[in-house]
Amino acid sequence: MTNIVLDTRQPAALGGAPAFGEGLPLVRPTLEDRPELVACISAVLDSGVLTNGPMVRELESRVAERLGVDHVVAVASCTSGLALTLQALEATGPVVMPSFTFAASAHAVVWARGTPRFADIRADSLTLDPADATAALGEGDGPATAMTATHVYGTPCRAAELQAVADRAGVPLVYDAAHGLGSMHQGRAVGGFGTAEVFSLSPTKVVVGGEGGLVTTNNADLATAVRLGRDYGNPGNYDCVFPGLNARMSELHAATALHSLSRLDEHLLRRHELVSLFWDELADLPGLRGPTLEAGDVSTYKDLTVVLEDACGLSALELARALGAEGIDSRRYYSPPIHRQQAYRQLERRQLPITEAMADRVLSPPLWSHMSDVQMRRVALAVRQILSHAPAVRAAFRASGGGGS
Ligand SMILES: Cc1ncc(COP(=O)(O)O)c(C=O)c1O
Q: Of 21, 77, 215, 232, which one has the fewest beta carbons inside 10 Å?
């Protein structure tokens, strides 16, 4: 029934009724079984230990077990976890990293007194290109002190190739795994690659704590340094050994994250189903694709990401605007890329042609773990409707003074 109504109607950008009159948000945190979660939070409040206590220890050990890593250090956010990790690794010079990632990946480098040196991404996976990372490591003022890569949208990076690049340059490799809790690469869980990986538990992620981050590593010295760093650099006697942060995770956030983590496999499965449903609905449309996964790899699908090639007839900005008219929220992750943002424009500039092109072509429509099939099908059908009227939609936007290429 829904299909028939949508198939015969005009896109809202051309005056049709919106697909979601009530609006559809980009993301919603999935926290079911509320009485169980509330009981757990209530027990934390009763315990009188509100931060960095038994819940945090439990979360660290559950994550270590799931990911098969020796050390997990829970922190207040992925940003602080990245900064503390890079500080511990003394990455105080140039750090080779993608520009096609969230700004916090670069902010962490700067807070650790390093300088981002941006390298390009691969057009297929949208993850750091090992060849351009190699080039970036050999260029610029002074030798690089570290390399970082992001499992962007949950797509695992090419870990073996990146490790070889980092090893040849003699620098540590740190993954921004903000999106990757649940991703698998070559049969291994994301979390055990590189010198360290750092996850986020913020509300847009698949495992949510409200806020929070997790540093995972097999390097005991690094884990010790990050543990100290999250607590001001205070070894316990108030004689701080270096200037750390307050980056402790609260017990309330750890309780929420444990609850969410216990449902991770169900949520991963559901996201996979929803993403498949979206692409099945649009399989015959030219010029649309998602980021490519290597054979056997698993993405968390933190986002449902669409790359719009010329053949689809609209730019990502135009499609975002037309979806907005349908009541469908979307985000152009990662546009602008970091090197074009005000905070970073003054940095030495390498050519990043794939980053530039992809930043103009990507769009993430809504996805969350308890989204219904009907909602996802309606999103896909709205995309189909809009693209099947692409010339008219473009002309209408141009006539109204808002282009969008
Ligand atoms: C790729 C990436 N890195 C880092 C972060 C920062 O995470 P947090 O908000 O936990 O500090 C985010 C947040 O969305 C992110 O998307």
A: 21
CA 108 / ligand 1 centre spacing (Å): 10
pTM of the model: 0.96
Nearest in space to 225 (alpha carbons), one of 88, 338, 115:
88
Q: Dihedral sign for Cα 107, 116, 345, 154, please.
A: negative
Q: Which of 79, 174, 197, 332 to mutate to test the pocket of ligand 1 (most atoms within 8 A of CB)?
A: 79
Angle of helix 316-325 versus helix 373-388 axis, rounded to 10: 120
> Both tokens of residue 197?
């990986």
For residue 278 and ligand 1, the question of a CB distance below 6 A is answered with no
pLDDT in tens, 224-253: 999 999 999 999 999 999 999 999 999 999
Selection from 15, 42, 22, 51 nearest residue 248 by Cα: 51
| Average pLDDT, integer, range 62-77 | 98
Testing ligand 1's pocket by substitution, the residue of 102, 181, 208 carrying the most ligand atoms inside 8 A of its CB is 102
> Does residue 104 line the site of ligand 1, with CB under 6 A?
yes
Instruction: Round to whole Å and give the CA distance between 97 and 334.
Output: 14
Q: Is the CB of 81 under 6 A from ligand 1?
A: no
Neighbours of 391 (CB within 10 A): 9
